[in-house]
Amino acid sequence: MDRSIFFLDQDKMPTHWYNIQADLPEPLPPPLHPGTKQPVGPADLAPLFPMEIIKQEVSQERYIEIPDEVQAIYRTWRPTALHRAYRLEKALDTPAKIFYKFEGTSPPGSHKPNTAVAQAYYNKKEGVKRLTTETGAGQWGSSLAFACNLFGLELKVYMVKVSYNQKPYRRMMMETWGAKCVPSPSPDTKAGRDVLAEDPDCPGSLGIAISEAIEDAATSKDTHYSLGSVLNHVLLHQTIIGQESMLQMEMAGYYPDIIIGCVGGGSNFGGMFLPFIKDKISGKKRDLRIINVEPTSCPTLTKGLYAYDFGDAAGMTPLLKMFTLGHGFMPPPVHAGGLRYHGMAPIICHLHKLGLVEAQAVPQVATFAAGVQFARTEGYISAPETNHAIRVTIDEALKCKETGQSKVILLAHSGHGHFDMAAYESYLTGKLTDYAYPEEKVKEALASLPEVTTA
């Protein structure tokens, strides 16, 4: 009988996170202070993050130990299963071998708790009482709510308004775990009030929500800020996905030729491919293809400018060297709320600039077509974000059908879409539309970049 699921015993779960900074062919450009334009130091970040997180952000150690308390919580759902997509392969009539690592079995239903639990633990250990954060589609907000509940921390979540309205049950998840969730832009912060004064009907963006959460943390007692993607320590925590996948691919007897995942801020896919890209950098697997997939309506890697920019709309964060559409860019309200971000993880941008990873952009309707095909073959209803990666996985498998090549494709399946059925209904009834790339709005946003774009 052909084996379709590869389970890893819990005693084989990785005990350390993998840090790509130890193996980068060139070091990352440093984050800069928004005022001085000089590299930030620990003192600049201490008001927002616990010191252990700050150390991880800049660490050059190849492996960083996962605390026992974090491992114990991980074992609630980890290791996650690796699947062979036999039914999808048959439907496509492709010689490609398709595998997918399914992160939808965590309590919140996505990959996000891998870092949420770690961040809540380090904040609790430092004596922090309360956290603030932003969320797009709600997967990060619900994951941090889950983690904060475990460690007895208060949490306030600023949820991008378009997703707050599209996905009410994500908000209910957060509130069930004890968090407070408000639509962003909100009247609760100066950053939110300023946006609402200019545009009362603003659908919101991750950049605006980040500004609100940072302002709240900076002006509140015993409060830190927590980010669900983009930063180095977040990708670090997610590498448990890729490390498990490497062990499971060995169990299956294959090594991937192509690894595919969706990217908004980059933590999900970075967590998958970073342990593998070490083999590409070392020359062990030079021809490994790594494809980052984003929406055509918010094409950061494929059409953005590689420059220093703020991570938030109000310009409160350190300046990060990344592919950006401009921190003032307002993405169209696509259902993949987690991919509506103007920037990208500096690590992924750096690797893309070095030519070690690829990027593709796909439109909304095509992604839901792929998601429905995946649901009707493999059974799982995927998040709109994940559907972007499924689209390119199917496209690459069909290329194998044309060429006759039996490529091994590994898909990073970031989470389920059980709270996104309104989006599926829109697709199935023919009401779902694509959004054109708002090129003029991007040009306008890029025109306001800080003056360190050539740094």
Q: What is the radius of gyration?
A: 20 Å
Counting copies of identical and different chains, the oligomeric state is single chain
Helix content: 40-55%
Give the strand tally.
15
* Spatial strand order of the main sheet: 1-4-5-15-10-11-14
Question: How many structural domains does the protein architecture include?
Answer: 2
Category from helices, strands and their pairing: alpha/beta
Alpha-carbon distance between the two ends:
57 Å
Shape: globular
CATH 2nd-level architecture of the largest domain: 3-Layer(aba) Sandwich
Low-confidence stretches: none
Task: Report strand %.
Answer: 15-25%
Query: For the record, what CATH class of the largest domain applies?
Result: Alpha Beta
Q: Give average pLDDT, whole number.
A: 95
User: Tally the helices: what do you get?
Assistant: 18
Main beta sheet strand tally, sense and closure: 7 strands, mixed
CATH topology of the largest domain, which one?
Rossmann fold
